[in-house]
Amino acid sequence: MAAGKLRYEHEEHEQRNLHKEIKVKLKDGVMRDALSRFVNEYPAARLKAYDNVVSIDRLRDDLRDMKEWTVDHIDEVADEFEASIKARGGHFFRAKDGDEVKEILLKICEQEQVRRIVKSKSMATEEIHLNQALEEKGLHVRETDLGEWMLSVAGQKPSHMVMPAIHLNREQCAGFFSEELHEDVPSDIPYMIHTARRVLREEFLSADMGITGANFGIAENGAIGLVTNEGNARLVTTMPRIHVVILGYEKLIPKVRDAAKILRLLPRNGTCQRMTSYMTMVDGPTPVIYEKDGQLVEEERKQYVILLDNGRLRAAADPKLKQVYQCVRCASCLNVCPIWTLVGGHVYGHIYSGGIGAILTGLLNNMESFSQFSDLCIGCRKCMTICPGKVPIPDLIDELRSRYVKEHGLGLPEKTAFRHILTHRKVFHTLLRMGALAQKPVESGGFIRHLPLFFAGMTKGRSLPAIAARPFRDRTEELFRENPEKPVLRAAFFSGCNMDFVFPGTGESVVKVLQDLNIEVIYPEQQSCCGKPVLGTGDRETAKIIARQNIEAFEETKADIIVSACPTCAETLEKTYVELFADDPEWSERAKAFGAKVREFTSFVAECYRQAGRLMPTAGTEKVTYHDSCHIRRGLGVYKEPRELLKAAPGVDFVEMKDCDKCCGMAGAFGVKYSEISLPMLKEKVNNIKASGADTVAVACPACLMQLRGGLDQQAPDIRVRHIADILAENIAAGHSQAESM
Ligand code: SF4
Q1: Region 188-203 average pLDDT
Q2: Closest by alpha carbon to 591, among 635, 550, 647?
Q3: Is residue 734 over pLDDT 50?
Q4: Can you give the pLDDT at residue 211?
Q5: What angle do CA 230, 234, 236 make, to 5 degrees?
Q6: What angle do CA 172, 173, 174 make, to 5 degrees?
Q7: What is the pTM of this model?
Q8: φ, ψ for residue 31 (rounded to 5)?
Q9: What is the widest separation between alpha-carbon atoms in the chain?
Q10: Which residue's alpha carbon is at the smallest distance from atom 8 of ligand 1?
Q11: Do 77 and 254 contact (CB within 8 A), yes or no?
Q12: Cβ of 305 below 6 Å from ligand 1
C-alpha cells in the first residue's frame, strides 16, 4: 500500500468506543503473545544493560536535574540553539503548531523543488500528521525506519514509541511486504531486512529531502543527536541535498556534556543496550565529498531546523506540567504498564500511548482525548520506578483530571454518587446497609458469584464480595471493652469503607493486634470514606469536603496516632490531604498535623514487634506468599515489614511469587468499570500465586483482598487469602504470639 493511502485505525474526529476496542485487542493473539514475551524478558534485560552502573538512581537524578534546569530556562536555551544553528549555516524556524510546520515545510519544498522525501526518527511529525499533508500536495514521502516503513506499508500507525511494529509478527510483515512489492516475500527476517534495504536504497538515492526528528538538540553548538540501531537516520541526514530537522522544545539541552546524561539512560531503558548501534550527531549542514570522473567533489548541503511548540511552551510555564520535559521518549513506562502490556498502544488512539501518552495527548492534542485515555492509568506507579527522567506520570494524570473536571464538571452518575452521597456519611452508610439486605438473593458464603443479565461479565472469573450483615462500626462497643487499662498509646482506627462494610472481621483483627501491643483503640464514628475514589475522577472539591470531615472527626479524639490497615487510605490521609490543602493556610496546617499521626498498620506493628524482639524468623509448614499492593509498595514505600511479620509468624513457611508487586487489577472503580482488563490481570496474578505453591496468599490491603478472594474463589478455591492483620490476630488468639515463638 502506498504511504498516501494510509489507513489510520482511528481518525481524530471519530467517536470512539474504548470498551469495544479493548475487547478486540484482547482477542488479538499475535499481539498478546508478542507483548507477553517482551514483558517477561524486558526487566532482566534492562537491568543487565545497567550491570556496570553503580547507581541507576543517581543517573536518573542527573537527567531529571538537567531537564528541570532546561525547562526553567527554556527561552534562553531555545535562543542559544537558534543562534548556534544559524552560526553553523543552518536555517532556523519556530512553529507554534502543526499547521505552521506544514506551511514552512511546503514553502521550503517549493523553493527547493523537492519532489521526493525520506524520513526517519520523528514522532513530532507523527504528532502533527505531517505525512498526509505532504502527500496531499503530491510529494512522495517514505518512512525509512524498518518498523515505520513496514507500518506505512500495512497502513497502520505505531503502537510503541521505540518498537513501533511490536504488535505484528513476521508472518504478518511478510504478507504486507508481498502485497506492497507484488512479489512473494517469505517470513524470514534476514530476507525481509535485505528486501527492505534493497527497496529503501532506491528511495535514499532519489530523495531530494531527508526529514528527521532528534533525540536531543544541543543549544551550545546547534548539534542534534540521533540514537538508532539501523543507520538509516544517518543516510536520511546525509544523502539527500536537504536535511530538515523537526523537533519539539522538550528535546533541547544546554550543553554537549548534557547529551551524556541522556545517552547513559535512553538506550539502556529503551532497547536494553548500553549503547545503540548508531549514535549520530549532526552539527550544521554536512557537505558531502565523493568521487566524480576521477576527481573528489565537495557538494554543499542545506539544513533547516524547525522547533515545534504545539502546547510545549504552555506546559513549560506551568509549575506542575513542566515535568513532562523530563521525558526522553524511551517508552520504558509502557513496557512495565500493566494496562499497556495487555492492550497495546493502538487503543490510546494517538501517537503517544500509555500514561505518558495520555498526558502528552492532553497537552499537545486535546483534553477530551486525555479524559478518555487517562482512564487507562490505574495509578499503580510502576512506571515511576523505572522512568529515566523520573516523570511522575500518575501525579500528572491526577492533575490533568482535576483540571478537566474543574472546567467541564463531572458526569451525572459520578456527581450524584460523590457530591450527594459520599459527602453525607449517614446517607452513604444507610445505602450500604440497605445493600446488605438487597444482596441476599444473590449472596452465598460472603460472595456474590453470579449476577444476572448485563452484569454477568463482572462475575466471570471473579466472585464479588458481599456487604457484611453487621459493619465494623456496629461491633466496636464489645471490642473496646478489651482495651488495656494502662495503655502506652491511644490509637484512633481509620477503617476505610472496605474494612467497615465488607471485611469487618479484619477490622476486629486490627484492633486485637493493637490491643495486644498495650494500645488503647478508639473509633471516631464520624469518619467516612477517605475520598480516594473521588480523587480518582479528578473531583478535588468533593474530596476536600470529605477530607475536612475526616480531619475534624479525628481531631476531636486527641489520639496519639491514627492507624489504617488500608494502604490506599493511609496514603490519602497522610500525603494527599496535605497536597489538597496546599493553598489553604488554615486547613493546610490541620492536614499536616493529621497526616503526621497516620500510621500504616503493617509497618507500625513491625516496628513495635521489632522493638519488643518479636520479629525473629520462625520455621513452619504452611506456605504463605505475599502480594504487594501498589499503594503500600510504591505509594508508601513499605515492602520489607509485611514480609518480616509473615516470616516471624508461627507455622509460616514464607515463599515469594513471581511479579509479587504487579497490580492485581482492582484499582478502585477501575476493576468494575474496565472488568475486561481487570480480569486478565487477576488471572495472571492467580497463576503466579498458584505457581508459588503457596497455601495462603497474604495481603496488607483490603481492596487487593477483595480482588484476590474473588479470583481465587472461582479459580483456585483451595488457596486462602488473608489480610496480615487476620494472621497476626489468629496467632494471638491461639496463644502462641511471636513473642512466645522466640
Ligand atoms: S515518561 Fe519516562 S519512562 Fe515514559 S517514555 Fe518518558 S522517559 Fe521514558
Answers
A1: 91
A2: 550
A3: yes
A4: 98
A5: 105
A6: 90
A7: 0.91
A8: -65, -45
A9: 104
A10: 330
A11: yes
A12: no
Distance of CA 45 from the midpoint of ligand 1 (Å):
17
Q: pLDDT averaged over the chain? A: 92
- Ligand 1 centroid from CA 637, angstroms: 21
Question: How many helices (H) does the chain have, and how many strands (E)?
Answer: 37, 23
Name the residue of 251, 328, 339, 341 whose CB sits within 8 Å of the most ligand 1 atoms, as the mutation to test its pocket: 328
Q: Under DSSP, is residue 142 helix (H, G, I), strand (E, B) or coil?
A: strand
Q: What pLDDT is stored for residue 13 in this prediction? A: 46
Mean pLDDT of 653-658: 97
Beta carbon of 327 within 6 Å of any ligand 1 atom: yes
The rounded Cα 76 to chain-centroid distance in angstroms is: 32
Residue 604 has φ and ψ, to the nearest 5°, of: -65, -45
CA 605 from chain centre, in angstroms, equals 31
56, 384, 387: residue to mutate for ligand 1 pocket, most atoms within 8 A of CB:
387
pLDDT at 197 over 50: yes
Task: Report CA(331)–ligand 1 centroid distance (Å).
Answer: 5
pLDDT tens by residue, 63-115: 999 999 999 999 999 999 999 999 999 999 999 999 999 999 999 999 999 99
Quote the ligand 1 centre to 324 CA distance (angstroms).
Answer: 9
Question: pLDDT grade, residue 1 (50/70/90)?
Answer: very low
DSSP assignment of 389-402, as one string?
T---HHHHHHHHHH
Q: Average pLDDT for residues 654-677, to the nearest whole number?
A: 92
Q: Is the model's pLDDT at 454 over the cut of 60?
A: no
Q: From the CB of 200, is ligand 1 less than 6 Å away?
A: no
Cα angle: 447, vertex 443, 457; to 5 degrees = 70
Query: Which set of grid coordinates corresponds to residue 423?
Result: 459527602
Task: From the CA of 356, give the closest atom in ligand 1.
Answer: 1
* CA of residue 410 relative to chain centroid, distance: 23
Q: Rounded to whole angstroms, what are the CA distances from 165 to 210, 272, 588, 594, 713?
A: 22, 17, 49, 50, 39
How many Å apart are CA 451 and CA 458, to the nearest integer? 7
